[in-house]
Amino acid sequence: MPFPRRLLTEDEEVVVEIRPHWAFLGKPLVTAVAVVALSIAVMVAFSDAPPAVLYVLLVLVACSALWLVGRLVRWFATSLVVTTTRIVQRSGVFGRTGLELRLERVNQLSYHQGILDRILRTGELHVEMGGETGVVVFDRVPRPSAVQSIITEQIDALRHRAGVPIPAGPVRDLFDGAVPTVPRGMRAPQIDDTPPSGIPRMPRTPAGDDSVADRLMQLDELRRRGIVTEAEFALKKAELLDRL
Question: Considering the domain boundaries, does residue 39 fall inside one?
Answer without folding.
Answer: yes
